[in-house]
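Can anyone check this?
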Amino acid sequence: MKILLTGSQGQLGRALRASLPQMLQNRSVELIATSRNGGDGLAALDLADADACRAAVLECKPDWVINAGAYTAVDRAETEPELAHAVNALAPRAFAEALAQTGGCLLQVSTDFVFNGRQGHPYGTDQPRDPLGVYGTTKAAGEQAIAELLGLERGGKAALLRTSWVYGPVGNNFLLTMLRLHRQKVEAAEPLRVVADQVGCPTATAGLAGACWRLVERQLGGVMHWSDAGAASWYDFAVAIGELAEAAGQLERAATISPISTADYPTPAQRPAYSLLDCTSSRELLGLRTKHWYQALREVIADVGT
């Protein structure tokens, strides 16, 4: 089975490469791993270049494209909407157009940011998209393009896997930022101020990668949700990072954390206040158990720096 993977240098891409199965559907797996600049055994593929995305599929004719790459700088997207749109909307469209010709399948990794966060209970896979900012809007546009070109039927040629608050032991993410800030604030004898009125669920890359591989193995199409179990605010997440990192010896001492409101920490992009995803049906389809986010965090912290 030939698989074209985008975003191979990103945190999810690295987790997918690290957990690459030798066999899928009783076929040996050939992975064509790509990143924007290539190098280190990776092919170069710039997701901002729709023609290059289309050509990559037409040339190598993969059985699956796993589009794990994205423009994820939520605040910077507000000032770079064209680039965000090119990567998050036009690249998925190009992949879908080419796969419609070659007959391959597409797994598009998407986000809780396609919802507005106002309903106060977990979002189902069939709920309408209503994003708040440029990042969510461009990801929603990518979803829509795939739906139009390949359809999103169960057992079809395309799957959306929405997730939330992704982090891992490498890359740019909340965990690694908080570890750095814990150290800085302890040294400065200052509290760490973290937003407490935005609720979602942290999702570790290892579990998310496992869900992606299971989806491909089972040839599933349609819209699915995957996050770790439970719920948390960013404040809860930051407190847990401090506790677990101190216990693991990653921090000499955790900083004192002060909860603040979204209004106290204005950002260029508006974020959903409540973006829990209902993963119940997706977990059943994938046949995978989910770890509570706190347990998953404990395991990731043990891997940081190793």
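Reply from J.R.: I decoded it. The radius of gyration is 19 Å.
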